[in-house]
Write a structure and sequence with these properties.
Elements: E1 5-8, E2 19-26, E3 38-42, E4 45-47, E5 49-56, E6 62-71, E7 77-81, E8 93-96, E9 100-104, E10 108-113, E11 122-127, E12 130-135, E13 150-152, E14 169-171, E15 173-185, E16 190-202, E17 207-209
Antiparallel strand pairs: 1-7, 2-6, 3-4, 3-7, 5-6, 8-9, 9-10, 10-11, 11-12, 13-14, 15-16, 16-17
């Protein structure tokens, strides 16, 4: 395996405030293995980055590498293999139990609940005076944050093929969360996987639909 430099182009209006970006980089065959360190340079200076192999060549070398790092407009970026990235000042911290997951980025803390809304169930912004709630904690029976309601037509005559239904009723769905897990964890970013289904009840016919 060899050390190489790969230029990174960031498209779009990034603005002057640094923002986290995510993107994939194709890697030539035989250049990078799964355990080879690599980092991103910003104007010639190494910066914190989180990497994850997404695909491999037949010889098991990395074919596609996913990057997460902070970037801003007007800077030049390149991926350098064989160099360990510097540590971030505020690494992502995760606290989890069977019922809740809390992710702390150093600037914001967010919470997900096993019996929650299927989305962010609470969020707090770190301030000089402590934490300021920016997303109220979700409670059962409050406004839904993730839903997929069903539409029940009164008869097949109300829904001719190739057209929109003319008459019917909305059947509110009930979210059932099966699993709540941290799918990816690193110093720069974390991914929470919420797996489940929406359950609708046709009251008149007493038929459940998932």
């Amino acid at each position: 395996y060899v050390n190489i430099r790969i230029p990174i182009s960031i498209l779009g209006n990034m603005g002057k405030v640094p923002k986290y970006v995510r993107g994939g980089i194709p890697i030539p065959r035989g250049v990078l293995n799964e355990n080879t360190p690599c980092t991103v340079y910003e104007d010639g200076v190494p910066i914190p980055v989180q990497t994850r192999p997404m695909a491999f060549w037949p010889d098991k070398s990395v074919k596609w590498l996913l990057l997460d790092f902070k970037a801003q407009e007007g800077k030049k970026y390149e991926l350098v293999t064989g160099i360990k990235p510097p540590e971030t000042e505020t690494p992502v911290k995760i606290k989890q139990s069977e019922e809740e997951i809390h992710i702390d980025t150093g600037a914001v803390r967010v919470m997900f609940k096993k019996d929650g809304s299927g989305f962010i169930d609470g969020a707090w912004l770190k301030t000089a005076g402590g934490e300021k709630e920016i997303v109220p904690v979700y409670e059962k029976g409050s406004m839904r944050r993730s839903f997929m309601d069903y539409f029940r037509v009164n008869s097949t005559d109300d829904y001719p093929s190739g057209s929109y239904p003319r008459k019917g009723q909305v059947s509110p769905s009930n979210l059932i969360i099966d699993t709540l897990t941290v799918e990816e964890q690193g110093p720069v970013t974390a991914t929470v996987l919420i797996r489940g289904w929406y359950e609708g009840l046709y009251i008149k016919d007493k038929v459940f639909c998932r």
